[in-house]
């Protein structure tokens, strides 16, 4: 009887972990899709379209409008990478770097209170990178034929 109880307990724990793992995966994919949509629609697109706010913001930063396009390309590439399982961890790591730059720029040049959003995004990208790294392709494999 004890062996049966132990086996049943083991099965329950395994099922719980599988269900929890599935829930985590669904939650993380939902967050990745939402972040990718935000990066593409609300962040990169206005930079590419030359929206007045984006142009003015990058004028305040003082690095020239070319930097607006570079930032938009990095955001768009990161957003697309977040949606590809083998690239999601690497995209998240790259976006962490972008968010660090955004926080520093907000604090030193723009409006310090607005640094909270890229800081939160950076934490989310760190979680994505950590969890998705097991699925990531090695960087060397990306460039092999």
UniProtKB/TrEMBL annotation:
Keywords: Membrane, Transmembrane, Transmembrane helix. The chain crosses the membrane at residues 26-45, 96-129. It is a multi-pass membrane protein. It is found in: Membrane. This is DoxX family protein. It comes from Actinoallomurus liliacearum.
